[in-house]
Design brief:
Layout: H1 4-9, H2 30-36, H3 41-46, H4 48-62, E1 67-68, E2 84-87, E3 91-94, H5 101-105, H6 112-115, H7 117-130, E4 136-141, H8 143-152, H9 160-168, H10 170-194, E5 198-203, H11 211-217, H12 219-227, E6 235-239, H13 246-252, E7 256-258, H14 265-272, E8 277-282, H15 291-305, E9 311-315, H16 325-341
Parallel strand pairs: 1-4, 4-5, 5-6, 6-7, 7-8, 8-9
Antiparallel strand pairs: 2-3
């Protein structure tokens, strides 16, 4: 019998609500910090043995129902020769951001199997280490989010550079998105071939777009991406700040649509359509709350799902730095206990 997580992704009945957490392998865990002391962030991503180790760390510690590959959404940008680096405390930066249409035309063609082989090796190592205990989720950044980083040169508050490029250079924008779709499709297929049993696409910054701009400049490319992913491997389509885009995101594709905490789960699911699964959508800040508060938030979340098949419990974004490990474990245990006992 397949895992509760994979069954929920297929909207099949499960004996309890499965739960995993974005950034469940991260710096809030002391065992992760111990590994991190030996490597820079990019070195850790590229060291398949160490990356596999931190991927598996949360499984026994937290009791979650899926592992998610330890990597970074921006790794596919490195072979595009944009000068990707991760500065301590400052996040990712790109030394040669795209600011003109001619730069898009000059981007090299990427042999993903070669350039990102270390990620595929990590997937193989994780599958061996998990030994069937829980499934492994592979992931990639969505083309829009990758394009935003490539144009802005890092994170941004307004994403003005990205929006201006999209509006002023629509042909170059489409060319850039097509190139990123090619890389992302190859990357995700490679993870599935290496052993990933589900995939998540992170469109972390797409919520900054107006709905009309999403439909014209992003939706067609996302449809292409989804059409090129392997059949039989569930795909989660996730973004933040996307309450105004949910119908279009569901139209783009995905077996499961991720919700952040800015919309109630029942309203989001209704708008997406009950023919899709949903993932989410607790505020990561609740993990700092007293245990009774965490349990009550979980109870309310499960009640809003109304026991429909297809709910994967998760946060609405990643675990925050400094989060108490005991709070994370309390959440996971509460999801399992309350969804099994019928206490919701």
């Amino acid at each position: 019998m397949s895992s509760a997580f994979l069954r929920a992704c297929r909207r099949e009945a499960t004996p309890f609500t499965p739960v995993w957490l974005m950034r469940q392998a991260g710096r809030y865990l002391p065992e992760y910090r111990a590994v991190r002391e030996r490597f820079s962030f990019l070195e850790l991503c590229k060291n398949s043995e160490a990356a596999a180790e931190v991927t598996v760390q949360p499984i026994d510690r937290l009791g979650v129902d899926a592992a998610i590959l330890f990597a970074d959404i921006l790794l596919p940008l490195e072979p595009l020769q944009l000068g990707l680096s991760f500065a301590a405390g400052d996040g990712p930066t790109l030394e040669r951001p795209i600011r003109a249409p001619e730069q898009v035309a000059e981007l090299p063609k990427v042999d993903v199997a070669d350039a990102l082989s270390y990620v595929f090796e990590t997937v193989k190592r994780v599958r061996a280490a998990l030994d069937g205990r829980v499934p492994l989720i592979g992931f990639a950044g969505a083309p829009f989010t990758l394009a935003s980083y490539a144009i802005e040169g890092g994170g941004s508050r307004s994403y003005l550079g990205t929006k201006r490029f999209l509006l002023e250079h629509p042909d170059a924008w489409d060319d850039l998105m097509e190139k990123l779709v090619d890389v992302t499709a190859d990357y995700l297929r490679g993870q599935a071939e290496a052993g990933a049993q589900a995939l998540q696409i992170f469109d972390s910054w797409v919520g900054h777009l107006a709905p009309d701009d999403y439909r014209s400049a992003v939706l067609p490319h996302m449809r292409t991406l989804f059409s090129r992913l392997p059949t039989g491997v569930p795909v989660i389509h996730f973004g933040t700040g996307t309450s105004g885009l949910l119908e279009s995101m569901a139209d783009a594709g995905g077996d499961v649509i991720g919700l952040d905490w800015r919309i109630s789960l029942d309203e989001g699911w209704r708008r997406i359509g009950f023919d899709r699964g949903v993932q989410g959508n607790l505020d990561p800040a609740i993990l700092f709350a007293p245990f009774p508060v965490i349990r009550e938030k979980v109870r309310a979340l499960l009640a809003s799902a109304k026991r429909r098949p297809g709910h994967v419990a998760n946060l609405g974004h990643g675990i925050l730095p400094g989060t108490p490990v005991d709070g994370v474990r309390c959440l996971v245990d509460a999801v399992h206990e309350l969804s099994t006992s019928g206490s919701t």
